[in-house]
UniProtKB/TrEMBL annotation:
Pfam families: RhoGEF
Residue span(s) of domain DH: 1-145
Gene Ontology molecular function terms on file: guanyl-nucleotide exchange factor activity
Protein species of origin: Calocera cornea HHB12733
Cellular component terms per the entry's GO annotation: cytoplasm
SUPFAM superfamilies: DBL homology domain (DH-domain) (SSF48065)
Name of the protein in question: DH domain-containing protein
Highest taxon of source: Eukaryota
Length: 145
């Protein structure tokens, strides 16, 4: 997801404070990208907490639970993202097919970057949704051990 941010979000942001989107970025796409950036930051915070908890092995479940409880409420950042994801993904896919769209041209150019793995941007935008499901599985497996 950091690659998505580096290739598709950062180049489209105006460096003003607060950051805004350059002209031509559809408003709904900009909002979804803002939410995605917040979600990626939250998941990075989860990763830092889990990594630090791994350092103290006993009691593992209680250590993880105690460290993650303050982050649980922050998962609400996913709500607007989940609501708008399908519609914005359609917008992105449509604009990528429009040769006269400057935004579509930017997306096409970034999608052929040497860093990009060939997966569509819309597929990458599903990753935060899939991560939520993985958290549930992670905790079920962790608790049953």
């Amino acid at each position: 997801m950091r690659l998505v941010i580096r290739l598709f979000i950062q180049p489209l942001r105006d460096r003003s404070q607060p950051p805004t989107w350059i002209p031509g970025v559809p408003a709904d796409v900009g909002r979804l990208f803002d939410w995605l950036d917040d979600i990626v930051q939250l998941h990075a915070e989860f990763a830092r907490v889990l990594h630090s908890a791994r350092q103290s092995q006993y009691p593992v479940v209680m250590t993880y639970a105690g460290l993650l409880i303050p982050l649980i409420a922050k998962l609400e950042v996913h709500q607007p993202y989940l609501v708008r994801l399908e519609e914005v993904s359609r917008t992105i896919d449509t604009m990528m097919k429009q040769p006269e769209s400057d935004f579509g041209e930017f997306l096409r150019m970034q999608s052929v970057s040497d860093e990009w793995d060939g997966l569509s941007l819309s597929s990458w935008l599903l990753k935060p949704v899939q991560r939520l499901a993985k958290y549930t599985l992670f905790f079920k497996v962790g608790i049953s051990r």
